[in-house]
Write a structure and sequence with these properties.
Elements: H1 4-7, E1 18-23, H2 27-42, E2 46-47, E3 58-63, H3 70-86, E4 92-97, H4 98-103, H5 105-110, E5 116-118, H6 126-136, E6 140-142, E7 163-167, E8 169-170, H7 181-185, E9 189-190, H8 193-205, E10 210-214, H9 230-238, E11 246-250, H10 259-267, E12 274-276, H11 284-290, H12 296-309, E13 314-321, H13 328-341, E14 345-350, H14 368-391, E15 397-402, H15 410-413, E16 415-419, E17 425-429, E18 440-444, E19 447-448, E20 453-455, E21 461-463, H16 466-478
Length: 508
């Protein structure tokens, strides 16, 4: 493990150097970016003002390799920064993440103005690599083949004062034919349970009241340490941490979703009634071609057990439409599962080739117009189900954790926004008394839309929390400082307009 003393002695940062981190991809990348920001600040850099748009001394791209246009997006952004770098002596550009792990030397060949390229396994080296590039006046490319330190052991600059990611494992042992991530993140490696719990306790001590356990295949936790029930034990251990109000996890794999995990979710009060369970396809034939190790019956059986144990659970999923060889009958099997499972929400992707994956060279690639037509049918069905399921919540009284930046129209509507225990988004009437992000309010749901709720009546109760105190303290401390770096945190549970993409790192 790399200690802080190993990371920073050689770094000599001129005063007032600013940085910006741009994040693409899954929750693991967001987690890594918080660590990259922490590393840079520990080395003496300060965040660039919000909205600086590349006008920083150091710009870091934390990339994703899952989507087909990932390369074009990166090189397009690098190209836009080239003239700015040429006119700004001393400016540095770094590229890390999955695309860097995959392309390596190709990046500096295509964009020779890039100063540093680093991979998914050695993010702790970024400050040293920047310094080395500055002193030697040449690009530094360093890609480690195995993990040097868990991201959670590195310094961090969290985007939220009241919620935090906690990595419990990295890498993936699956070989899904549509996914390149295991080749870039490596085999699964689990953290020690004691280290995970110690980090959570530290975060709670800092005012965090909600944590999300993170892993490429989060419920396979324990396979590396020889304990098949390690994940359920970890969930129960989280329940014993005083001050920890909400526990979530993403993303599990149906293969490893065992009865002991369902029991731990149902019996641990601070584990939230929410489950993101990737389906990918409802067809056994397609699942086999994808190398997914479950079939339709097994998947629906898990959903049935979860609903029996946790009646109000909100279940979301990932689905790929148009996988090579998918017939109309195969697609109808996916539609059947969607009707049976009645997901709260589905993140639905159109299959597209990703170089380096087995599926990219499979026969019977589906024509674009066929994929598009199926995609539109599936989205229409899921929108209908989402709205029907949400309408069932009208009249319920819910406790919301007040969120920051979740309601784009809150200023105009004089509302605030918060997350229900099942992570669904609720916009509520702003009460007379002060309410801070991280505080908890009790409201009655009066209206349901497919992707959000309204609580138009008066707030029934306001509970000020240590998390709200932490937000207030952090806000006061940063009032006179440059605005924080925006890491592009995903709005889990309330998807943006459905994108065209392959499945990926967080879709296992």
């Amino acid at each position: 493990m790399t200690s802080s003393s190993d990371r920073s002695p050689a770094v000599d940062v001129p005063s007032s150097k600013t940085y910006e981190v741009r994040t693409y991809g899954c929750q693991m990348n967001v987690h890594d970016s918080e660590r990259l920001s922490g590393l840079l600040e520990e080395a003496g850099y300060v965040p660039a003002p919000e909205g600086s748009d590349g006008d920083a001394d150091v710009v870091v791209f934390n990339t994703c390799a899952v989507r087909e246009n990932a390369d074009n997006r990166l090189y397009g952004n690098l190209g836009r920064l080239a003239p700015r770098k040429a006119s700004r002596p001393g400016m540095q550009i770094a590229v890390g993440g999955c695309l860097a792990q995959k392309d390596r030397d190709t990046i500096v060949k295509k964009a020779p103005w890039v100063d540093v390229v680093f991979g998914t396994h050695n993010i702790g080296k970024l400050p040293i690599l920047l310094e080395r590039a500055r002193v030697q006046e040449e690009a530094q490319v360093e890609i480690a083949e195995s993990l040097e330190a868990f991201p959670s052991t590195l310094p961090t600059r969290r985007e939220s004062a009241y919620a935090a990611w906690v990595s419990i494992s990295v890498g993936c042992n699956n070989t899904c034919t549509f996914c390149i991530v295991p080749a870039l993140r490596g085999k699964e490696k689990d953290r020690r349970t004691g280290d995970i719990l110690a980090e959570i306790e530290t975060l709670v001590g800092e005012g965090v009241s909600e944590i999300t356990l993170l892993g490429q295949n989060v419920n396979a936790y324990g396979s590396d340490i020889g304990d098949r029930e390690a994940f359920s034990k970890l969930l129960r251990a989280c329940g014993a941490i005083e001050g920890l109000e909400r526990v979530r996890f993403t993303s599990p794999h149906p293969r490893d979703f065992t009865d002991d995990v369902i029991a731990a979710m149902a019996e641990t009060p601070n584990v939230m009634p929410q489950l993101h369970m990737p389906l990918q396809s409802g067809s056994d034939t397609v699942l086999k071609a994808m190398r997914r190790s479950y079939r339709q019956e097994r998947y629906l059986g898990i959903i049935e057990k979860v609903r029996a144990a946790i009646p109000h659970a909100a279940i979301t999923t990932d689905i790929i439409v148009g996988f090579p060889g998918e017939t109309e009958e195969d697609f109808e099997q996916t539609m059947h599962v969607v009707r049976e499972a009645r997901f709260t929400q589905a993140f639905t992707f159109q299959y597209s080739k990703r170089p380096g994956t087995p599926a990219a060279t499979m026969e019977n690639q589906i024509p674009k117009e066929v994929v598009q037509a199926r995609y539109e049918r599936l989205v229409a069905l899921q929108e209908e189900i989402s709205w029907e399921e949400n309408k069932k919540q009208v009249g319920r009284t819910l406790e919301l954790m007040v969120a920051e930046g979740e309601g784009r129209k809150d200023g105009a509507t004089h509302r605030l926004s918060g997350r229900a225990p099942d992570n669904r988004l609720v916009h509520f009437t702003k009460p007379d008394q002060e309410v801070r992000p991280g505080d908890v309010v009790t409201v009655e749901i009066t209206y349901a839309a497919p992707h959000h709720f309204l609580a138009e009546g008066a707030v029934l109760d306001v509970r000020r929390t240590r998390a709200g105190d932490a937000w207030e303290k952090r806000n006061a401390a940063e009032a006179a400082e440059p605005a924080g770096v925006m890491l592009g945190l995903p709005k889990i549970g309330v998807p943006e307009p459905l994108p065209v993409a392959t499945g990926g790192c967080a879709a296992h």
